[in-house]
User: Fold this.
Amino acid sequence: MLTGPFLDRNWMGQNADFASADIVMLGLPFDGTVSNRAGARFAPEQIRLASWGLEDYSPRFNKHLQDVNFHDAGDLELPLGNTYRSLDIIEENVRQIYQAGKRFFGVGGEHLVTLPAVKAAAAAFPDLAVVHFDAHTDLREQYLGEEMSHSAVIRHISKFVKDIRQIGIRSGTKEEFDFIKTRGMDASINDLKDTKIFVTVDLDVLDPSVMPGTGTPEAGGMDFNTLIDWFEKLKDFDIIGADVVELSPDYDPSGVSTAVAAKVIRELLMVC
Amino acid sequence: MLTGPFLDRNWMGQNADFASADIVMLGLPFDGTVSNRAGARFAPEQIRLASWGLEDYSPRFNKHLQDVNFHDAGDLELPLGNTYRSLDIIEENVRQIYQAGKRFFGVGGEHLVTLPAVKAAAAAFPDLAVVHFDAHTDLREQYLGEEMSHSAVIRHISKFVKDIRQIGIRSGTKEEFDFIKTRGMDASINDLKDTKIFVTVDLDVLDPSVMPGTGTPEAGGMDFNTLIDWFEKLKDFDIIGADVVELSPDYDPSGVSTAVAAKVIRELLMVC
Amino acid sequence: MLTGPFLDRNWMGQNADFASADIVMLGLPFDGTVSNRAGARFAPEQIRLASWGLEDYSPRFNKHLQDVNFHDAGDLELPLGNTYRSLDIIEENVRQIYQAGKRFFGVGGEHLVTLPAVKAAAAAFPDLAVVHFDAHTDLREQYLGEEMSHSAVIRHISKFVKDIRQIGIRSGTKEEFDFIKTRGMDASINDLKDTKIFVTVDLDVLDPSVMPGTGTPEAGGMDFNTLIDWFEKLKDFDIIGADVVELSPDYDPSGVSTAVAAKVIRELLMVC
Amino acid sequence: MLTGPFLDRNWMGQNADFASADIVMLGLPFDGTVSNRAGARFAPEQIRLASWGLEDYSPRFNKHLQDVNFHDAGDLELPLGNTYRSLDIIEENVRQIYQAGKRFFGVGGEHLVTLPAVKAAAAAFPDLAVVHFDAHTDLREQYLGEEMSHSAVIRHISKFVKDIRQIGIRSGTKEEFDFIKTRGMDASINDLKDTKIFVTVDLDVLDPSVMPGTGTPEAGGMDFNTLIDWFEKLKDFDIIGADVVELSPDYDPSGVSTAVAAKVIRELLMVC
Amino acid sequence: MLTGPFLDRNWMGQNADFASADIVMLGLPFDGTVSNRAGARFAPEQIRLASWGLEDYSPRFNKHLQDVNFHDAGDLELPLGNTYRSLDIIEENVRQIYQAGKRFFGVGGEHLVTLPAVKAAAAAFPDLAVVHFDAHTDLREQYLGEEMSHSAVIRHISKFVKDIRQIGIRSGTKEEFDFIKTRGMDASINDLKDTKIFVTVDLDVLDPSVMPGTGTPEAGGMDFNTLIDWFEKLKDFDIIGADVVELSPDYDPSGVSTAVAAKVIRELLMVC
Amino acid sequence: MLTGPFLDRNWMGQNADFASADIVMLGLPFDGTVSNRAGARFAPEQIRLASWGLEDYSPRFNKHLQDVNFHDAGDLELPLGNTYRSLDIIEENVRQIYQAGKRFFGVGGEHLVTLPAVKAAAAAFPDLAVVHFDAHTDLREQYLGEEMSHSAVIRHISKFVKDIRQIGIRSGTKEEFDFIKTRGMDASINDLKDTKIFVTVDLDVLDPSVMPGTGTPEAGGMDFNTLIDWFEKLKDFDIIGADVVELSPDYDPSGVSTAVAAKVIRELLMVC
Assistant:
């Protein structure tokens, strides 16, 4: 073997040992149902590379990535053309993470990957609530006749979790906005403090100026610090799983979207 | 004929029937006098395509595009190298819209296209005022010796409309800023509530981070929601015409500028 | 109605009347099974726009587009997430074209759209042969377990057409290259002169320098004129259908790939 | 004053002294009549910068730029919106170059800038012939009703020069191609050896793979070395003026088009 | 000589005469120690070009660039691979500026160029304080074993200036943040009013949405107007030198980052 | 541990076991002396990712990557700002590869990384010759006063290897071209068949149309197949080391340059 030194090719600051880690990060390179611009399949690896452009220390949370104790398990190999089988593979792996007594941290891929992940999490924690950051409601029953769509992911999840709260929403059908109101799914989260929660972040919750590299850019979103303010509120919550989805790196030739996604993940890890 | 189904290639949510529509949308692919970066000629068609990435429902105005009752008439064919003839064609078509008892909604093209449109509108409504969103004063008498320039469009308009108000201005010569002060053309609009107004939106009123795809990016602009706040103020005004100009789509390879332009148009339609 | 003049938004030089046209052009915006980089769904409309940057006269074939007598029928609306239903819609529409006694000219979309098109063509012309321009063999039985993949399209077609010839191939598995040899599917086409043929052009047959905007760029391809030389050879063949697929316009910010695709289509129309 | 050293900001290898130079290089940042994609106005300065990425030695011609003895006079300031005045300014300055007993070397800008330059050259050399490298015939009488268009430049020139030869042409109307034939304007140049010639190079004569950053990319062009082979043929001709036009640098984010344009200029200077 | 008119190729609004100018602007095209994405070497010339897209009048400061009385001295020629020699050349030239009784205004280049500039300034003004705008602390002692790194520039400066204040910092190691606290280097600047100060602006202090074209984009930064608010606070301070660094223009194909950098410089000049 | 399946993140087709491999591939992410456009430091990892877009079978050589028996050892961590130390680390690791009785295959990084690699190879094989593919001679003694420059790498190598042959050269100073002639370093290679050779491929030997993503694009290069023809000639030579350098992936937003680089490496591996 060679003496190197060699560049580490895993997420910066990870714990290389699965067994002793508290959190398992899993890349989910799937974008088979994207209705607008695809490419989210390339996100997990590009974010991993971009993580090395960050510091491992977060001044906001006064904490190092090493304190988080997460293991980067790599990216699943998913058959893009077969949505159902892809979702099964994700669900099975996330289930194994919870069976090992660990927490799951997903890196998408499109938002539909959240469905099997939350299914596996809800199997482990029956009273699970979901805190959902997004520009879009994702509450359709189907899209162009397809039930399995990233536009329907939260609707499907709403059928088996106890509670959902949505933050940053600014686009959807009138029916979807009515559904939010009827179900009490708005952005108030304080009553969830004693509930196990799964945090899912669709990066298009950020304004397109901050995150141009995404499949469905929607003007009028929040800036980076506002999102991290929300994470800070979640610091004392009982987060048992999380994911960050919908970066489409090729749509931003400046590379900034990927760098922002990496920092969103770093800061979200700090409160998990 | 074929059974399809076929994609609709007009603006999302339009009324396909000219006769029954209240508003007529007209694409104005002209950029012959642009002083810096051209390409606004490509905007009308790219915005039309991008409109399908939006929802037809605006949660901000709790209204559907279909409720607006606008007809997408397509894009005029303009002889780019001949400024005067291009302006004549625009004026004649806009005049026909007003003669048909309808309102005009233009999609530029560079800002000079607003001159013939407002001329035609002022012919129909003699006491017309103009509400002007822009980074630049556009109050020069000429630019490099040319009277017909997108830098002079509002100066020319000021000669035949009753009133002009400017919002978002952050660039111009000292003479232009003095002209604004002398004429009382600042951003206060409340006294215009009972006046017929024409709303012209130069997209560079938005910050370049939000709208990089424009000919003359000018740092320090407003964000998307601030612009829509202004539109909300205009909801109770008597808007008899409007346009949105100066997207240069090729300068933003992420496609976000075009998506933002489409949403600006959707929201402005909601208050027309 | 307005006097305009208005820009024509159909393919340059088309016959606006379906009934009297000899050839029907159909846009097929589908890219649901793409194994590498998606985005071919955006190709048909962008190519249509780019057609107006060309002349309607081809000096190579000394012929005008108007002489071809083709009708641009627009783009099918396809449920991207549902491969089978998308393919059914394509097949049904192409069948209608042949039932109307016309020839089909498809604009993809990914290469899988060729499967239902050739199925419909073969139903009309039982002894059909396929002339296949591509960098890739596309002869897999499945890809990542999926039978319906753009990597398998020609294999599936090989089961129901009389003959296939492949031109420009430079990538595949050893098994695929052996399959070509066993089946006699190489680039010799002279014996097909009296056979009805369907010509399918995967644009990645061109070198990536000529066509960077494609899903699976493969170095070492032919240049533009070599491809048109092949078309010239096909001038005296009995082409009853054709398609041009796999432009992914967003991957080429220079716009050149889209312009090249439009010209490939213009020249192929000249020999259909 | 400071001791530096400072970067030279003129064209690499120029003679800083106008009086003693044999050739005067003039930047012509005009693109007011471009029918497709504009931006050629930015070319002269970007090419100047890119010249420093080259060597001053040409191995093909075994000669240094310093041996050419050319002076970089800078870029004219042209009123883009006023075509006629812009052309007048160019003509007047080129006339001064010839009156000073020097030869002219122009850097466009769009192709229309060649019209006043050749006018001034023809005033000095009445029997002038033009050797024209281009993808397009540029032989229209007018474009969209405009006489002054980059699509008409060679037609206008044909009215006052003795002879024109066109090399690389692959696009035009049937009428234009007939005009070429009638006038004997094809690519044979040997009989011009004893004639004063003006060489005008529209960079889109190169294939779009080589030169994506141009206003009207036209597939099927020549590669770089073929163009330089033509320059080599011209080595023994009596070139009294030349220009290189139609780079639109912003359309090629890789910067390669600008680098290629700079090298085309370096090699053309070698034979002037 | 020619009558022109010619485009001015220096910074807009400069005083062409070194002797009578109060401020000397110097381009410093060096990026040899950049840890992430290079390219800052191309900034000085691209910003100079972009300055012509601005007005010379600043409405914020109600002042013209001509009132600033600055001379654009051009760009130093620096041996990129030799960090120490490059820094020496910079120091020597800046020293000459102060010896001539003028103030220095630098345009980077990477941030390390600030070290020799401040050294020369501190030689002229021994009680100098530095006001430092940046996303990053730049307080490392070394980076990957290298003392001379843009990540260490402020640490080295801290050893010979009286005081440093940091504004906009949001990234660094825990040790660096502790260093800031210990040394009292936070953003309070009011007590520096009677001190000679050097203002150094790393453009990544702006949010990456505003300034994507930089080497180390760091989410969560300030917007343009907030930065100019800081400049306005500095209006009454005794600024004896300043620089603006770390634009990497090639990373932003929209050109907006370069336009923003030019305006940052214009506004900073207004308070110098 | 999880059941996956997981994506392999090493070079496609590698042997995961160092000990049993014949060839060791080493990434060398260094670009500290690049004279024009940097970014080659990002190449090794992006090429590794792009390798998965290729087939593992080469039809040209009728061979699989698995038959090559190479091990992907990862990328060295190099202190960019310290050229000498970076070169030492490379030399030491390459020496270890030869001491283990294996052959070296480097992936740059800029061309200077070839110097320590060939040093280590020449220590193992004293009569080594170098076959050098490049647009540039790289034969300067120094560049801007720096001895250690990618423009000088072959000159330095020429001092300790037996022989050098250069292929594809089209740029250099007159002195460099004279040096080639004097030393007999032209493209004839047949007499090297019985000599141990090291093959170094600067990717800018390819035409910029094929490889825009490189630091110093130089028009007039060879196309992909011509380069592979050269590799085919080398099939029977005794190649004991090789490298492929100077991809700068960020300069080609289409991603094609990276895909081409990956295929160049695959084909070169086939003949090693």
